[in-house]
Amino acid sequence: MTGSEPVAALSGFSEIADRFDLCFCDVWGVVHNGVAAFPDAIEALTRMRERGTSVVLITNAPRPRDAIIRQLDGFGVPRAAWDAIVTSGDVCRALIGARAGQPMFRLGPDRDLPLIAGLDAPETGPDQASYVLCTGLFDDEADTPATYADLLAGFAARDLPMICANPDLVVERGGHIVPCAGAVALAYEEIGGTVTYAGKPHRPIYEVALGLAEEKRGGAVARDRICAIGDAIRTDIAGAAAFGAAGIMVLAGIHAQDLMQVSWEERHGWFGRQTHRPDYAIPHLVW
């Protein structure tokens, strides 16, 4: 959305459900908070599908979709709530595959190892690497991007390209905000490093999601019949705008401190100060 008109406030997705044939829905912050799923969001997604709207979950998780399916199953999210899943990890694997055999330094926790499983991506130390794969922080409870200042400076001095598997700057985990790979990648760019991003708001992940939806629906979907739901201005809302989809902002996510305990007038003021604005806003995803 551009211009000065206020963001349309929603009390439930059902108010606009008949406008869309396809919904791209963020996962972390909308469907769950990293600890538990949100029952109202699950109901909303299920009802969308019952009415004929396809749902593709799009997440910047730096892991293949199978890992996310297992996670959602563990949270009790029924498979009736979605048609397909696309992760930044899926897109990232293609980027890594294009560098087959090149020595890589992996910056991120071992829980992201499934991302490179089966790929020709030999790991090495920072001084021997041809490129850097950043999936997150080694310890996102204790570290910050500043923790890696010297490491990043060394990469920049050698002009090493970085692949960022998760463009998110932060994510909510059980009520706490923790930094993500995108924050490290941004710090690297700020000192002159070159970064390729695998996920939202960049176009490739949306193209994959649209392709999966059209395959399942058996036909093309018009851009003006697509909405994208998320809780992050920089990734979800910016990505929706760039792809031509209607952006729906969930307020009770990573921007909750700015948006939840204030009036709608104050929310509109906050949106007006951002680089991108959603078409609609809703406190939580509910039907």
UniProtKB/TrEMBL annotation:
Which spans of this chain does the record mark as coiled coil?
Answer: none
> What Pfam families does the database record attribute to this sequence?
Hydrolase_6, Hydrolase_like
According to the UniProt entry, its GO molecular function terms are: phosphatase activity
The record's SUPFAM superfamilies line, in alphabetical order, gives: HAD-like
GO CC terms = cytoplasm
Kindly indicate whether the keyword Ubl conjugation belongs to this entry: no
Keywords, A to Z, come to:
Hydrolase
InterPro entries named among the record's database cross-references: HAD-like_sf, HAD-SF_hydro_IIA, HAD-SF_hydro_IIA_hyp3, HAD_sf
Entry protein name = TIGR01459 family HAD-type hydrolase
Q: Which organism is it from?
A: Bosea spartocytisi
